[in-house]
Amino acid sequence: MRNLIKKRRQEKIFFHRKLFLVAMLFLLLSISACSKKKAVEKKLEDIRTGTQGIVMNFLPNAPPNKIHVEASDTADNSFDIILELRNKGAFPQPNEGRAPNGYVILSGFDSNIIRIGDNKPYENFDTKALEGKSTINPNGGLDLVIFKGFVTAENVKVDKYEPTLLATACYQYRTVAGPSVCIDPDPYSTVNLKKVCQIQSISLSNQGAPIAVTRIDEEAFARKTQFKITIKNAGGGDVFTRQQGDTKCLKLERNDIDKVWVEEVRVGNKLLNCRPFIDGATSGNDGYMRLINGEGFIICEFSDYGSASTTYITPMTIRLLYDYRNTAEKKIQIKKEIGGISGSGTDVPSIVPSIYHETSSEPEVGIY
Q: So what's the pLDDT on residue 294?
């Protein structure tokens, strides 16, 4: 009997231990699932962050820091120039294309000395794998642009030539900002009502693009709400109007730069009228805005409250389109090698003059 009681007690202890282990395993799995969910949510939040678009870097030893060339028909005076391009912004998304429309241009060297490929020192990268950051690819696209350089050694008239290769990327980009704003159809009401939000200014950081919406100042009137939207060039490059041609962005006029095209501003699904636009814009819904010292603003009005009579929160959508330019550079040294002396010994005069003439029988004293 005693043994039976002891056995049942051991079985009970074993059951409780097993139940405890199962519970701990379930808890660990739940924590892991929550951690993964939070990681995914964090990635979704991080898509439209940062202030960069296309970023370039010269790969190591492409081109080499020092290039030795010879003025010979058999010499190989070629070298590779390889640029790594990465899209660190959020445009384009998978439904907007594979890469931004744009190109890379090489400059900064004497074209009589250095020739790039078939005299074409530029390459389009709209077919490259340079998609923007997304939930599928949170790091953005990465690809290479490769040029072949050739040195005309006979045109190097000095011992060494030290140019700086300048790579310029010019491309179209888009900024999309989507903050939530407060709409109050009756801001001057004397009745004390509970409001879900307050009219206030909103500070924004960045949207995964070099042009950023940094602040929205809101003011409510009896029949309309005004939004002052501040926009800043945060990417460190140049923003300019859309250019045509493969090298136009190297020759910008003063009137071309510091312009951003405002595609649309919406509150909910309502398109807003904004001002001031430049260059003769007449629609009020879109147009170019000017940046002064890298910053500018537009004022947009919302008056279509519909049937709303109390405050509510709604999303605002701001879409900006522009061309952008940034650069990377690398200094190289081209050193010309001197070939050996060629020719027969008869071309070199003797350093010891003869004291005898073969046709004379008498010796003739030489002059030393």
A: 96
Give Rg (Cα) of the chain.
36
- Predicted confidence (pLDDT) per residue in 148-171, tens digit: 999 999 999 999 999 999 999 999
Residue 364 has pLDDT above 90, yes or no: no
End residue of a domain, out of 45, 62, 78: 45
CA distance 232 to 51: 10
Which position has the higher pLDDT, 167 or 280?
A: 167
Residue-level pLDDT at 36? 45
Specify whether 136 is located in the same domain as 231.
Answer: no
Residue 334 covered by a domain: no
Residue range 264-291: mean pLDDT, rounded: 89
What's the token pair of residue 346?
A: 């008869």
- The predicted-structure confidence for 170-193, as pLDDT tens digits, reads as follows 999 999 999 999 999 989 887 788
Domain enclosing residue 27, as ranges = 1-45
CA distance 96 to 92: 5
Residue 231's contacts (CB-CB under 8 Å, 6 or more residues apart) are 211, 212, 213, 214, 260, 289, 291, 295, 296, 297, 298, 320
Of 102, 245, 104, 123, the C-alpha closest to 174 is: 102
| Beta-carbon-side half-sphere exposure of residue 204 (alpha carbons within 13 Å) | 29
Cβ neighbours, 10 Å, residue 262: 22
**Do 319 and 227 fall within a single domain?**
yes
Structure tokens at 200: 């206030």
- Whether 348 shows a pLDDT value over 50: the answer reads no
What percent of the chain is modeled with pLDDT above 70? 77
Phi, psi (degrees; rounded to nearest 5) at 229: -105, 115
From CA 227, how far away is CA 218, in angstroms rounded? 5
Q: In what order do the strands lie in the sheet with 160-161?
A: 66-70, 333-337, 160-161
pTM for the whole structure: 0.78
Is-contact 153 71, C-beta < 8 A?
A: yes
The alpha carbon torsion through 289, 293, 295, 301 (nearest 10 deg) reads -50
Domain co-membership, 153 together with 192: no
